[in-house]
Amino acid sequence: MKLRVRKMSEKEQLRQEPMRKKRKKGGRLFCRIMAAAFAGSILLLALAGLLLPDRDYSEEEKRVLASFPKASWDGIQNKDYMEDLEAYVSDQFVLRDMWIRFKVQCDLLMGKREFNGVYLGKDKYLMQIPETPAEAEVAKNLQAINLFAEQNQELRICMMIVPNAVCVMEDYLPKGAPVRDQEKDAKELKEQLAANISYIDVTAYMREHVQEGLYYKTDHHWTSKGALRAFEAAAEGLGIESPLTDYEIYTVTNDFSGTLSSRSGYHKVKDSIEVYAPKGTEVKYLVTDSDDIKERPTVYDKDALNGKDQYQVFFGGNHALVDIRTTNRTNRTLLLFKDSYANCFVPFLLPYYDEIVMVDPRYYYDNVQMLVSNKKVTDVLFLYNMDTFLNDRSIADVLAGE
Amino acid sequence: MMERMREKWSLKKWGYVRIGLVVLLAVFILFDLWGGRVADADMESVVKAVTQAAGMEGSQPAEARMVKRFYGLNPGDYESVVLYAPADNMDVQELLVVKLKESSQRAEVEAAIQGRLDTQLKSFEGYGAEQTALLEAHVLRVKGNYVFYIVHERAAEAGAAFEKSFR
Amino acid sequence: MIFSSIFFIFVFLPVVLAIYYLVPFRYQLKNLVLLLASLVFYAWGEPIYVILMLLGIGINYVGGVEIEGYLQAGRERNAKVACISIVAVDLAVLGFYKYYGFVLENINAILPIDIPYHELALPIGISFYTFQTISYIIDVYRQKVEAQHSVITFGAYVCMFPQLIAGPIVRYSDVEKQLSKRTLSLEKFGDGAMWFLRGLGKKVLLANTMGSVFDSIMALGAADTSVLTAWIGCFAYTMQIYFDFGGYSDMAVGLGKMLGFEFMKNFDYPYTAKSVTEFWRRWHISLSSWFKEYVYIPLGGNRGGTKKAVRNLLVVWALTGLWHGAAWNFIFWGLYYGIILCVEKYILKERLGKLPIVCQHAYTMLLVMLGWVLFSAPTLGRALAYVGTMFGIGGSGVADATGLYFLGTCLVPGIISAILCTPLIYRRIPRITRAREWYKQVAGAMIYIGIFVVSTAYLVNATYNPFLYFRF
């Protein structure tokens, strides 16, 4: 019995032995080519990296690239130096942009539709995935807003939280891609608001017009068209009777590549930025902001079109305070608490107010109540996109006015 | 006989070397264990050292309420807090030194700093490339009951100065 | 430093290899280069704890020489004392750094006291190199190997960078001869490059991809997870951990070959096992054989009756679990396997082998996958909740759109991963790389270079590149 078992195993060994040997090593030519190709490609890329000049800035990533770090004892001790050096080598790697595009291409081939917090949807739409809300902050902000409303009963207070692309353009998402239900978020916000704040929900109306391109394909903002449709839906709620309907449309750029392109590494499309000028109004206005007190007759910043972020063409970016005084005589002054979504929305409001005061709570540190009385504010609007509103950490502080 | 003697002696010698190494090891571990608790330094000299290293002696520290605005921290809860705020909304350079009342406060302060950093990163994403680079090169250090955070062109130097101010 | 980084591949590796190949074997110069390179490699990630490792090397080096001296002088008792005390020191350092926080946390939780402590960072690789030095000391004491009299060579053995931070746990007896005499050749270098690229591809292309799927699924709330999603998540983690660790081992083998070493294989198609016992003969072989050799057998192994053998198995598996990390879920995970192995050994016996092969595979994979849930979850409660979701308790139905989305995103990499878990492809590789026709050999090399190019693209864009086994 024992003998037989042994025989079997010997036989098995015989069968397996040559195969195992074979598996262990490749052929001579194969190994030589492997050696040469491996060593060669490493040396080639490493040397090319040494010889080519360093880049300071990456257009595609919209990011300052790491430069060669200075060695210091302290830096070595706490690993900062090593991390900086690794970042430097990686950032200055030969043809970095090409490698990144190639990687995204491979991901697409493998069926991946999510890149660094961005979904690639239908029609090459990039859509930012909203973050998980900072619940405690939201509660604090809502409490402060309600308190503000209570203390200012005479004002018309509205809140318009614009849903993000993932919500309005639901049908464009990769099938079944998990996202936060922003409709539910909106409903919950509405329920928590004080009675004298009216919540303006533009989701349904925007969905009807979803094919018109309400959001940029490459950026997390909405387009002027999106803002226009939202304005149409909101006008009544804002107390604007018979809003203008005719606009002159100017395309100011055709090669806008926004934040989502940089974040995802997907650069297959460009956007155009449009500017809407209402027809049939004579309104003129002067704009000042907290970063530039020189009065100017426009809300647009042409220089931004040559800059890194062309969306800044609206107001030249975010400012703590923007003041727009118009030639209207409507006896209405609007105080607007806003994020960057408002920047392309405000142009649509110009014909209907004497003065519009835009406050960005992230940067505004002065007393709001003073502002209300000094500017004789009649209307207040909180205008945010859902993602930033649910993650905001500054509204409560601004309204508390400490 | 001689051979054996030598062997015996050399084994003894190796034994001493080993014991010496074990003692060194014990010292190292003790040092590592107690290293987190540093002698008290006073706030003034720490702040002076870091502002000097960052070359911002000229600027004025911000009001206490700004600590609340930026970090959501109540300065009264801590031994002392010093903040140098950004000059305007396109500036990100800031410096925060917190002296804790007790070490259990460390986590909340670090979380607050992380929150502030995330907020800043988010508001500059996409258009403030230089600002983003500075934010990413921030230095956050904890030493004893001090928490130190800086976003500055010379953040690394300030970080080293912070470490040094305890020696 | 990790292997799968631009810095390692394009800066550290070429510099080290160039110097290594240029210096002669004479006067242990190659070992010296290897030692220094390894110290830089280690200090890169642990600029302070490199001192700890150096002290460890010193103590074990002296200890080995001492034990051998005592044995030659016939002083058994002294040798035994030295052996035990050195192993004790090794274990004390390992235990201290790994379990200090864990122990105090539990003491504080159980007893009505509050001992203040500040978390110590776990020195990278300490679990691996400590096990190597322990095996060395014990083998010297057992006279299985001679003590190493050159501190350079001994140092090079302990902290050799290919296996320093994630194994395999190379036993001194396996590389004793290679340390003093090994050959370098173009063919061996090429073979090493092949192994390295194979591992790199596994890690960067498969493990990271599956890992990102797993992370996205874990980020969903339990209420949004359907049975389908939960299984995809579990599958993704199962693949991630194998290709992560297996890829790292392959890279280590490849780097070893480039330096002239032959390491034993650490994985042998573990997911093709037909029983859990067999799985553990194929998974992380260097660790399980270490525990068998230095814990299980000295405890008495399976001699001395079933009761004792079961006790020994459970002790070994609790320790194996604990080795993986200082947390209760690792201990439970270890005991989970201990119990399964006991059941297979004493209750199921040969009965398992009589089932259809498919059932045997299904049985094994099911238990292994459930094991990974236990392994990956932060707490036991979370693990049980997740297992519940997998079987339809507390989730959102059997399948939903989200589940289909994840099925879509991980279909291609998932199928590739599943195929590469089996010897199916690997068995065919030699037919190309060792073919008579030259063009087939060239084509084989091109495939690996292709893997290299794609992996490099992923490394350049390394927003997502965590190493799972860094915790250990």
Keywords:
heterotrimer; A: about 400 residues; alpha/beta; 3 domains; eight-stranded mixed β-sheet; three-stranded antiparallel β-sheet; 15 helices; about 40% helix; elongated; B: about 170 residues; alpha+beta; 2 domains; four-stranded antiparallel β-sheet; 4 strands; about 55% helix
User: Based on helices, strands and strand pairing, what is the structural class of chain C?
Assistant: mainly alpha
Per DSSP, the total helix count of chain B is 6
Total of domains of chain B: 2
Taken as a percent bin, the fraction of beta residues of chain C is under 5%
N-to-C CA distance of chain C: 15 Å
Helical content of chain C, roughly?
over 70%
Helical region count of chain C?
20
Based on Cα principal axes, name the global outline of chain C. Answer: globular
Average pLDDT figure of chain B: 81
Give the total of beta strands of chain C: 0
Query: What oligomeric state do the depicted chains represent?
Result: heterotrimer
Output the structural class of chain B: alpha+beta
Major interchain interface with per-chain residue totals: A-C, 53 and 65 residues
What kind of sheet is the major sheet of chain C?
none
Residue stretches of chain B low in confidence (pLDDT < 50, at least 5 long) are: none
Strand order of the largest sheet of chain B: 1-2-4-3
**Rg of chain C, Å, rounded:** 23 Å
What would your notes on this structure say?
- The complex is a heterotrimer of chains A (402), B (167) and C (472).
- Helix content of chain A is 38%, strand content 18%.
- Chain A has 402 residues and is of the alpha/beta class.
- Chain A folds into three domains: 1-49; 52-91, no CATH class; 120-400, no CATH class.
- In chain A, strand 3 (114-115) and strand 4 form a beta hairpin.
- The longest helix of chain A has 24 residues, at 28-51.
- The model of chain A is unreliable at 1-25 (pLDDT under 50).
- Chain B is α+β, with helices and mostly antiparallel strands.
- Chain B folds into two domains: 1-35; 43-164, no CATH class.
- Helices cover 54% and strands 13% of the residues of chain B.
- Chain B has six helices and four strands.
- Chain B has a four-stranded antiparallel beta sheet with strand order 1-2-4-3, sandwiched between helices.
- In chain B, strand 3 (139-143) and strand 4 (146-151) form a beta hairpin.
- The longest helix of chain B is centred in the first third of the chain and has 33 residues, at 2-34.
- Chain B is elongated, with a radius of gyration of 23 Å.
- The mean pLDDT of chain B is 81.
- Chain C folds into two domains: 6-182, no CATH class; 188-471, no CATH class.
- Chain C is built from 20 helices and no strands.
- The longest helix of chain C has 35 residues, at 76-110.
- Chain C is mostly helical.
- In chain C, helix 1 packs antiparallel against helix 2, helix 9 runs antiparallel to helix 10 (227-258) and helix 15 crosses helix 16 (380-390).
- Residues 464-472 of chain C have low confidence and may be disordered.
- Chains in contact: A-B, A-C, B-C.
- At the A-C interface, helix 2, helix 4 and helix 5 of A face helix 1, helix 9, helix 17, helix 18 and helix 19 of C.
